[in-house]
Amino acid sequence: MTELVRDVVIIGAGATGLTAATTLKKAGASVAVLEARDRVGGRLWTDDIEGAMLEIGGQWVSPDQSALIETLDELGLETFSRYREGESVYVDAAGQRRRFTGDIFPVAPETERIMNELIERLDAMVAEIDPDAPWEHPNAREWDKISWEAWLEQQTDDAEALANIAMFTGAAMLTKPAHAFSLLQSLLMAASAGSFTHLVDADFILDKRVIGGLQQVPIRLAERLGDDLFLEQPVLRLEHGDDGVVAHGRSVTVRAKRAILALAPTLYHRISFEPALPRIPQQMHQHLSMGFVIKVHAVYERPFWRDAGLSGTAFSPFQLVHEAYDNTNHGDERGTLVGFVSDQNADDVFRLSDEERRTSILESLATYYGDEAKHPVVYYESDWGAEEWTRGAYAASFDLGGLQRYGADLRRPIGPIHFACSDMAGAGYQHVDGAIRMGRLVAAQIAEQDAKGAQGPRA
Questions:
Q1: What is the widest separation between alpha-carbon atoms in the chain?
Q2: Which of 4, 62, 253, 355 makes the best surface tag, with the fewest CB within 10 Å?
């Protein structure tokens, strides 16, 4: 057993933990990062599958993600634009396929009017939300008691408008059924991206990718830590008190002044805290849960949809694959489609055999792109629900009433223990940008507290 003494021990080597660690180390603090996996990156993972480079986890960069963009520049990483030339595809409830351009789907004029009115109304509500403190809004209690679906049903009886608007924060973002989370949680999701309009605009929120893969961000940050990073060290016991913490990894024990838990709050139960956490955090963590989405990668000999004048962008709340995009790698002659199967649909297809699930998903892709979509040369499903140290995707969110009830406690330190991850970010919530912001924030908080402690009490 290796025993270390450090100023700060960071549990988790994702973008948050590595940002915090490198920031603290640059400021002169001694750190140790303990990571349960045999790799860095957390929910960022770029891998080679049957000769194809696939982004198993997060991958996109949008223009508002300034913390991520600054980090990419600092690390010398280059981006390229997602392919979007040509027309998009929309499939309605009857299975009719329509080609279109722009952000609004090709629906009946009355449905389009209702959708535009709802987006405008939601933009006005989102503008009043502080993404770092949505629970402070005067209507927070009311908005957190009603589900996203129930609120939409109060606004319209147009089933197609309702299904489409619900999808933007439901299946597409929080990856939960629209009845399972609140209006306030939905507004936070939109506020974290700047507006509800931004969530509707795929060309904005899914703007660019990193050449070589987004996992290069944590990989390059990890290089700055050298021997201060320890992989395959799950922390299953954390002692804490007035004199600091002791984190027990598999073969490394770290005694430190402070600890940063840089992992999803849904995993805190894996750690035995000694003494136990106070009752409020214990209750709070039981009201958070991960969503569930399957990210489907289908690689073809060529991007055949481009020949038909299609951008590769496709949507339908009525399809098994509710959205899909051209995900062809930079400089690759082959074509790649990425599609998403969320919430209840994801549960249902995992009750099928592997072959039945693959067939069902490819048939859904074929609804958008034609029969050629049924015959990829590489097919892969990112199943984060089966990842021991993640157990869902994309992020954790509160159940009904939980955000207003517990949101203010989510980041609050408990003695020497600090909490940070993308799941508790304001701007950039559930994205890499939010993870980096949280890493910077917790590092700054620790530095500030240490500075105050060094000054001592005033006479």
A1: 79
A2: 355
